[in-house]
Amino acid sequence: MSKKFLCTMNPKSGTHKAAKMLSALRNDFPDDVFIVLESKSAGYFTRFIDDTILADIDAVLVLGGDGTMHDVVNALHINNKLNIPVLLFPAGSGNAFNHDFDSLTYKKAADRLRQFRIMEIDLMQITYNDQSCISFNMIGWGLVNDISHLAEDMRWLGPARYTASSVIGLLPNPSSHLKVKLDDDIEYDEDFSFVLILNTKHTGKGMKMAPYADLQDGLMDVLLVRKTSLKNLLVLFPSIYSGKHVNSKYLEYRQVKSISLDSDSIQQLTIDGEIKGNAPLEVRMLEQKLAIIG
């Protein structure tokens, strides 16, 4: 039986593979219907996807990177359609979400589409500046946000931009004072280099930031990296690809259902690779809310 797919494309995302993947999908699934919607600006899908577009859709195929996925997931949330299965094809430069599924090629993603196994994953709801949005991947504050800014300016490097921007971003070794509350009973009030709040194991280009993360455990994995010397950060950095950094004495690794951050410094956040919002913020888990093709 044929299926009807909404293909949400970001033609400028990461590796510019979206158009080629769409062509391959049409060849590999000739009996299915593909409705194509191309992003024209940041937040495009959140603004333009509605009930009419989502009518009778069997699944949403995201041809882009984590930022495109962020936009689509928030569009589904706004329209109360998180039950429509989503499949992210790895057309971005980082593809952090797809690292969790070992689905880093078109072929592997297409195989998942054929099998069409549905699973429900957790989401994180973020409140900041009297606004709210949904995160499926990660939230970053501090140094990681500086690195994200650099990575945006270095897109011409392709996937290598994540490593290059990380090394360059480390050199100034910035830190800021932060008040953190975890599950309303654990508090920190000190200087931090950065904070990462993760739903997935991976971020960036295969960085295994949260090795114990589980998309269905109802918990977010929090990394609090204290202010320390540049030397210590440079030693810590290479271990994030294996996940061994969690044993460092310079960070706290916690699994919680909620977190709040407050800081006097005005620093933007990085949410699923998108730079938006700033502290103070509150995050809480939404358990198994998003249907995906797993």
Short description:
A hairpin with a 2-residue loop joins strand 5 and strand 6. This protein folds into two domains: 4-116, Probable inorganic polyphosphate/atp-NAD kinase, domain 1 (Rossmann fold); 128-287, Tumour Suppressor Smad4 (Sandwich). It has helices at 18-28, 44-48, 51-54, 66-78, 96-100, 106-115, 143-153, 161-170, 230-236; strands at 4-9, 33-38, 59-64, 86-90, 118-128, 131-135, 138-142, 176-182, 186-198, 220-226, 251-256, 258-262, 268-271, 274-278, 281-293.
Q: Can you offer a commentary on this structure?
A:
With 294 residues, this protein is α+β, with helices and mostly antiparallel strands. The protein has 2 domains: 4-116, Probable inorganic polyphosphate/atp-NAD kinase, domain 1 (Rossmann fold, 3-Layer(aba) Sandwich), CATH 3.40.50.10330; 128-287, Tumour Suppressor Smad4 (Sandwich). The protein contains 9 helices and 15 strands. Strands 5, 6, 7, 8, 9, 10, 11, 12, 13, 14 and 15 form an 11-stranded antiparallel sheet that branches.
